[in-house]
Every structure is written in C-alpha cells, then in structure tokens.
Amino acid sequence: MKDLHFMRGLTFAVAAGCGAACANPATAPALHPESQQRPAAQRDLIGMPLSYVTRYEDTLLDIARLYDVGFVAIRAANPGVDPWLPGADTHIVVPYQHILPPVRQGIVINLAELRLYYFPPHGAPESFPIGIGDEGKATPVGRTEVVRKRAHPSWTPTRSEREEDPDLPAVFPPGPDNPMGEYALYLGWPAYAIHGTDNPYSIGRRDSHGCIRLYPEDIKTLYAQVPIGTPVTVIDQPAKVGWLDGELYLEVHPGQDEANAIEQHGQPRSDRPIDADALVRKAAGKQLGRIDWDRVHAAEWERSGVPVQITVSPVNFSTAAASDGGQDDGAKAAKKSQDE
C-alpha cells in the first residue's frame, strides 16, 4: 500500500531551492581565475527533493508518516498549508533530502532539525525523524554512547512524570500501550534513551521528557543495526552546508525554540533569521565568488528545512564576466561579494 501511495503522489523536483538554472547571469559576480572549476566531487547530501500531490482525505501528518519525515519539518516546508485540510491536488514539499551533519560517526542527533543520523561502520548513512524533549525538559547536548539495548522494554516513570500524572504506575509493563514502544537503546546519560513510541504522531515534535523517540518502524530498523558501545553525539545546529555534484547547498531550520510555534501556527513566532553567513564562507573556500548571497539570505529568513543550492554555475559566471567587460571587472565583483 505504501508503494502505491508513493507512485501516485510522487513528483520529482529538478533541484532543491531552484538550482543553477535560476541564476541571473546579468547580475552574478564573475569568478577569480582560481575558482573557475567546480570542487572535486563531494556528496554531503542524502535523499532527494520530492513533492506530493494530495488527495482530498490526506493530512500533513499522513504524508509525514508516509515519507518518514516529522510533523514540524513538513509544516515548515509548507507554510500556509492547512495541516488537517490541505485539500485535493495541493502540491506539498516533502523534506526528504538532508545535508549530513558535521559529525559523522555513530549516532548523531540534531535537535534543531528534529532528526537522527546513523553512520554505520560500513555502508551508507541513514536518517530518521525524531521527537525530543519539550521546553523545560530539553534533551541534553553532548557526547555519550549506547550502553544497553532492550526489546520490549518496561517503562519506569521518573519522579517529575509521576508528579505530573499521579495515576501513572510505578512500572509500565511491555505492551502496545507502553510509551517506550517495542525497542530501546539506553544511553550513558541516566534516564535517557532512544526508543519507539505508542504515539507515532508525536514524532517530529518537542513532546517528550528528554528522551529521543522514533516511529515504530524506524526504531526497529535502528535497533537491529546499532551495537552497544556506539557513540552518540547530540548537537543543536539549525544551519548546515554541504556539497553535491560540485554545488554548495544550505539547509536552515527554525530551531528548537520555534518548533512549538510552527507546530501550532505553521510559522516561526520570530522574524529573526538564522545567521549562516560564516558557515557558508567557510564551506565555500575558494568558491566564495560563486555564492549567490540573495539565495543564502532568503534561506536564512525562510527557515524551511529544505536544502537550497546557493552556488551559481561557472558557465553563468563566465557569461557574466564577458558581458561586464572582462575578467578585471569580474574579479572586482567577486571581491565585493567576499567583503559583504
């Protein structure tokens, strides 16, 4: 059934965030001679840009579960769309492509994007949406490791959880109603675990007491692969950059403090952009003259969580240099973009 929905609703976007074909050669700065070539092949992105055409009965929650993305992520990528009644034939952006985080070992959890990455010793990295701790019950940032695994875990509520709900039992036995789901990876931090859930619609939200929740099918996959001793790194990085096929991409998320507002209202409560300029400059290196700063600043304001191509192709730059009277003027334009 999932494959049938996939084939019916799936359309392939040509490129994330418009792509090089959208660049304007008349306004793009020319390149320095040393940056006329694209960098060596590097693939920092996984997944692909996708969109989905809705049926009348679809909700954003249904689509998020179908494509293994979280609720806040799909709302951020589709501002203005009613999450419960998107209507028939609405084109939904599915945030199915991701820039890999800067740490690439073991399990890496990025709280800002509500997503977990697993880098196995051999094979391609995998990624899963997660639920994390709500305000006042935040999931900690730092390094730890998987110290224990358990299928069909029991759940022992903490003192604070018992205070919030005095009717909770001292120990919740394994079963379909257990909030920890069917599998748990216990961390070196006491009382913290990566586990499943009995409420799949909590995934992609800040809705836990600090633990990391996954869809039932995702924790089953992860549990089977992750050995005890696997390092776990938790970061909180709303902006990421990465190269794919010689082009640099920027992915900007709203951040933890805006997740609840997006869940409830579909947009951040603050109009303050995420400042990723320094991150872009560092990643661009000698390719800095190719950066389209309008695209960078648009991504920083929109905070859609969708990777956006922020480089302009060398061909377009060469055309711009010729139309502007040669390399000398082009070099000045490139320098101006570096100084901005």
- Encode the helix/strand succession as letters: HEEEHHEEEEEEEHEEEEHEEEHHHEHH
What would CATH call the homologous superfamily of the domain at 103-235?
L,D-transpeptidase catalytic domain-like
SS class: alpha+beta
- CATH class call of the domain at 103-235: Mainly Beta
Percentage of residues in DSSP E strands = 15-25%
Number of distinct helices: 10
Main β-sheet description: 8 strands, mixed
Mean pLDDT: 80
Number of beta-strand segments: 18
Radius of gyration: 22 Å
| CATH fold title of the domain at 103-235 | L,D-transpeptidase catalytic domain-like
| Helix content range | 25-40%
CATH architecture name of the domain at 103-235: Beta Barrel
Distance between the termini: 51 Å
Which segments are poorly predicted (pLDDT under 50) over 5 or more consecutive residues?
Answer: 1-38, 320-340
Overall form: globular
- Give, in spatial order, the strands making up the sheet with the most strands: 8-7-6-15-10-11-12-14
